Amino acid sequence: MWRAVHVSLRKSVAVRVFHVAFGGTLESRTQFAEEWARLKKLDHPAICKCYGGGFEESEAYLAHELIEGPTLADEIARRGRLPWESVLDLAEPVTDALNYLHTRGIVHGRLAADKIVIAGLSPVIIDVRGEDGSAPFRDGPYHFQRPPSPEQLKRRPPEAPGMHDAVTPRSDLYMLGAMLYEALTGTPPISGSTIQETTANLEYQTPTSVASTVLDTPVWMDRLVMQLLSKDPTGRPVSAEAVKLQLAEVRRRSMSRSGVAEHASSGFSPLAVTNQADREEARVLLGKHAQPERPERVIDATPWHDKAWVLLPVLGLLLAMLVWVAWPLNEDTMRERAEKLLNEGTRSSMSQARISYLERIVHQYPDGEHAAWAAEQIDRVEMLEAEHALTVKLNRNLPLKNEAERLCAEAMRFEKFGDNATAVDKYQSLITLLGEESGGNQSGDADGAGDEDNDKFGEYRPLVNLARNKIARISASDSDQSEAARIISAKIEEADQLYLQGRTIAAKKIWYSIVELYASNAAVAPLVKTAQDRLAETSSGGASFGGSIGKSRESGGE
Fold first, then answer.
1. Based on the number of CB atoms within 10 Å of its own CB, is 389 exposed (0-12), middle (13-18) or buried (19 or more)?
2. Which portions of the sequence form the region Disordered (predicted)?
């Protein structure tokens, strides 16, 4: 996998290069072209976008959207295992993406934790290929695969253990279940240290249930994962669409927040317990003993709703529920619950804390002891949400909706390039132009104008706070134009060295970045002209480029 710059789109891309054995036949080249044409049509937020492909002498390549971030495998290795709420947040978009592929006749066939990249807080599936599970192109000249290792076999479906075996949509569902199992427990569903041992376990070993390993996992999540891991493909859900419905059921029922063993022993959900053995196991986990069988009782013919022993408890329960719902939470309780959600650190929990508790503290107790704290937390949550939304837009090349997003995105590009001084200037420009001090407080304004400016600042407040936060993180050592010139000169020198080493694409990427970022900066115009000249010379294949580099160095890097 290589990182490159797409010239026409003017953005960074990931390039996968395939070696063409013996130059490739016409049939294999045609098949490869059909595959990338099919991939280009895929458009889903949880699927890495393909921009096309081509051939270069004895190699073929595919250009994909560049997704930056850790993989799910990295997160599992770092954290051991993930909370079930985080796994549920990841499972829903990934399942929706699988349903999108399956409805178009495409099977992923290699789904695993290392194929899921966490972009911000959103999962993205990578390494999608435009073929169905039985396509012979899987074994073609562009798709060389080494024999699977024991670690790979632990996550493969029993009906297709090898990388070249034909897979179906239900094979993808098994691999989805294996990925969820590993994320919840920290270990693969199948054990084994050798290929022979793992292959045998894959066929005969039954994974330990998630709920018996991680007791706070909802029983509906446990039952769904274990159903996905069924050895028999017909025992798995019929489609990814069915899995989506079951995940929605897990989210709805898990709001009760009771323990897995209590759910299982209650037998309330059809997904929870299916036989008496499971029910007895749940009672053991609860520390309850099995009740002795009782003789049959004579059924009372009186309707149950006419019995006093039913009516009185129900009436008392309804009255207690009305009192509980109508009784307002005090300020201390709301702060305690908000802090608990904020400490979870997930995007959904922070948003829930803001909507359910922080905003209520500010509105119901504006003069309370926690009002100022709640307002600060609201600003922080809104800032993080704005940063995530802007990062997603930049990664997806989506349009920016206002001036604040444009200025912040421009500053982030300078910061990513390494020019912290210019990035600080851009962030400061955002604060000066759209900050609170510029709206609604100037003398002589009409009341209506002041309210309009305050509303405007309220819209831009998250990005203004983000700019202030970014400035606080960046070292403010040098912020003048000489720092920008030093950085550009160093980048040009780096690109020259890369070009002389034969790494033309990497060198061009740096020159393109200099031209794109600093074309409007008159103070560094000579350096921008140097980068433009390098691009022109390398594009025309000039033989005297090495000499021009030498002259540029002798003249002091002008």
1. middle
2. 141-167, 537-558
SS3 15: strand
Give me the residues paired with residue 119 across strands: 122
Residue with tokens 């509980």: 324
Beta bridge partners of 6: 11
Distance in angstroms (rounded) separating the CA atoms of residues 44 and 96? 9
- The residue whose two tokens read 């050798």 is 194
* Ramachandran quadrant class, 148 (left: phi over 0; alpha: psi -120 to 50; beta: rest): beta
Residue 200: other Cβ atoms inside 10 A = 13
Query: What CA–CA distance (Å, rounded) separates 222 from 210?
Result: 5
Burial status of residue 376 (CB atoms within 10 A of its CB: 0-12, 13-18, 19 or more): exposed
- Cα–Cα distance between 319 and 149 in angstroms, integer? 62
Query: Do residues 98 and 45 make contact, with C-beta atoms less than 8 angstroms apart?
Result: no
- pTM, two decimals, is 0.47
In this predicted model, what pLDDT tens digit does every residue of 284-311 receive, in sequence order? 544 445 455 555 455 555 666 667 777 7
Contacts of 68 (CB under 8 A, 6+ apart): 117, 119, 395
Residue with tokens 């993205």: 124
CATH architecture of 76-131+144-284: Orthogonal Bundle (1.10)
- Please choose, from the candidates 519, 494, 527, 488, the residue with its C-alpha nearest in 3D space to the C-alpha of residue 508: 494
CB 66 within 8 A of CB 12: yes
Q: What tokens appear for 558 in the block?
A: 């002008």
Under a CB-based contact definition with an 8 Å cutoff, are residues 89 and 130 in contact?
no
Q: What DSSP designation does 115 have? A: G
Q: Helix 481-500 to helix 504-518 angle, to the nearest 10 degrees?
A: 160
* Sequence spans of domains, the chain: 2-65, 76-131+144-284, 483-554
Give the number of other CB atoms < 10 A from CB of residue 249. 16
Q: Does domain 2-65 have CATH number 3.40.50.300?
A: no
Residue with tokens 């709420």: 85
Most confident region among 8-17, 93-102, 133-142 by mean pLDDT: 93-102
Closest by CA to 475, choosing from 556, 401, 407, 420, is 420
CA atoms of 126 and 69, how far apart (whole Å): 12
Q: pLDDT value at position 438?
A: 44
Which amino acid makes up residue 197? Answer: E
The Cα 131–Cα 106 span in angstroms is: 6
List, in sequence order, the alpha helices (H) in 46-138: 72-79, 84-102
Q: Classify residue 548 by burial, with Cβ atoms within 10 Å: 0-12, 13-18, 19+.
A: middle
**Total count of residues recorded for the chain:** 558
Under the banding of pLDDT at 50, 70 and 90, the label for residue 199 is: confident
Q: Which residues contact 430 (CB under 8 A, 6 or more apart)?
A: 404, 407, 408, 411, 463, 464, 467
